[in-house]
# Entry
Amino acid sequence: MAMLTVGAILREPLETTLRFVSWYLDAGADQIVLCFDDPLDPAIEVLRDHPKVRCIRCTRSFWINLGCRPRTRLTRRQNRAMQYVYDGLTEGWFLNVDGDELAYVQGRNLRNLLAAQPDDVRSVTLRPAEAIQCPQTPHLQFRLAMSDEACERVYDDLTPFMVKRRGLSGHTIGKTATRAGLEGFQMRQHFMQGPDGERVLDQVLGHGEGAYVLHFFDQGYDVWRSKLEWRLSSRGFRENFKEYLRACLEGPNTEDRLREVYDRLHVFDDDQLRLLELLQSRLEVRLNMAGLVEDYFPGQLAQAA
# Structure
């Protein structure tokens, strides 16, 4: 069976990093290459002796050797780092993901899915399923990309801020596993790109095939609020949404208004979950994430808490 290598550049809490590694070990990864944006990340000490995990400290000299610097825009550094990992492979598949993205295939694991691909398939892209907050249910809930009409039913007057990304807050393309050995191709966030600009998207899977990348884009209101000013000054939000949020910041009852916006976009009650189900835009995943991490790294979650 073809080898599976998973690569990521990350700067995450230890709990998130251990979840990531445990998940992909369980998915059949033969090698997990982690480029730590913080060269002193405490996860390195936990993971560096694991036989299937390779830890790379992204020091200043590491970035300079790749033709950039520590302050270079993250996406550019990410592409350079993942290109470096990809170019070192001689066989199998390479999955390029972020630390908050978990490839999920219903009924089988990722390695088996990739092994079943015909020889002429260079890449397999998994469409995103985006985590939403549903405190009333014990199971993980995700929303899927939806039509314009479905988006309007779900978000009402907030639709203009969500429709461009088909009802999601993060990316809509997904993430791609690519065969090793493509020469002259460049690594991008969501796919490989050929010398003529071709996007290598040979096989695209999603709801119909029960294959997704679970994207834990939202980390709760406190994180959303703490990053708000940064996102308003970057490309984190679309311009029309930025204008709306700035109006909230400048008007009365700022925190209440911001909390209402967040809740309407990220927190779903039972009626809203049923609506997502009706619109075929809901995914429920029944997994014990903490138990999975405990299986691979006993006692580490308790120490990270």
